[in-house]
Amino acid sequence: MTCSEGGARPWGWRHSAILADVSAPPYTGHMTPKLADYIEAGYSLTPDERLEAARMLRLSVDQDADADSADIDSAWRDEIGSRVGDILAGEVQLVDADETYRLLSAELASKRR
Questions:
Q1: How far is Cα 74 from Cα 109, in angstroms, rounded to an integer?
Q2: Where are the domains of the chain?
Q3: What is the DSSP string of 96-112?
Q4: CA dihedral 94, 99, 100, 106 (to 10 degrees)
Q5: Three-state DSSP class for 1?
Q6: Coil, helix or strand for 85?
Q7: Exposed end of the chain (fewer CB within 10 Å): N or C?
């Protein structure tokens, strides 16, 4: 029995005029060929092996994020040291927070006119 004869319809099927391109799996649309090949090869693994591969990949992403975080922390330490050095050398004028807000409010008000 076909779908038009009242048989079971595949999941997601709505109308015979709407046909999907089944030449490539839908998940490959935004992947590089290398990544698509890797994913496809992963299907030959057992479920436990796929879980372990996923866990290892996640750990590698976390390690990359930790490395980026260390670089950012280092850059901020350098920036803070530079700013403190400028203050101690008298190269910048410090402005009270209330005064800063007053100056910003005045500047914004003048631009609205």
A1: 38
A2: 27-112
A3: -HHHHHHHHHHHHHHHH
A4: -140
A5: coil
A6: helix
A7: C
